[in-house]
Design a protein that fits this description.
Blueprint: H1 15-37, E1 40-42, E2 54-57, H2 64-72, E3 76-81, H3 88-96, E4 100-102, H4 109-118, E5 124-127, H5 145-153, E6 157-163, E7 178-181, H6 191-206
Parallel strand pairs: 1-7, 2-5, 2-6, 3-4, 3-5
Antiparallel strand pairs: 6-7
Helix pairs in contact: 1-2, 5-6
Amino acid sequence: MTKNYQKRASKEYNKLRGIFQWITCTLVYGTYYHIAFNLKIEGRENVPKKGFYIIAANHTSAIDPFLIIHATRRHIAYMAKIELFKNRIARFFLDVLGAFAVDRSKLSVSTVKTVLGLKQTDWCLGIFPQGTREANGSLDNINKGFASFAKTLKCDIIPVAITGMTKDQRKIFKGKMKIKIGKPIPYNNNIEEMITLWSKKITELSEGHI
């Protein structure tokens, strides 16, 4: 892995990459999951069409990022653990979809610069506060990073709850997948308060069925 995927210039978040996101996430994934797994989306009206926001969702499966992009109708650059970029196929899709690598053991200067540059574009920042997939539906092990970025960047957090997407729940033509989007959580200087509000909102949106 010679390219530094932790550092991405704002010019990389261009129209061409946005079109590729739309084709992949809406035309392909969105269409397939609506038909095969009865995907339902609620709360799209809560997503501003313009402006920089952090999209923060619970994490239950590898398809979450694709379907959240489809659900929100916003271009989203996701933080992805650096280990994923070691696989050639995964690295290709992560790259062209605009994701950037993050070393979970330490926050690099490159990551911070990428996020700061992203704010100058019409894209949003996508983060899964749990860091890794929690197939059991718990909201444990929440990383404070997303709230810290909200405080630093002075941007609101859009909570997104995902239900019915674990591997065991994905039954073709019998699935009950749902993505529910809440109203933006205003940023403030109290990181713990933002984390508590996000957790509470995700629980409410999922109706206890994460």
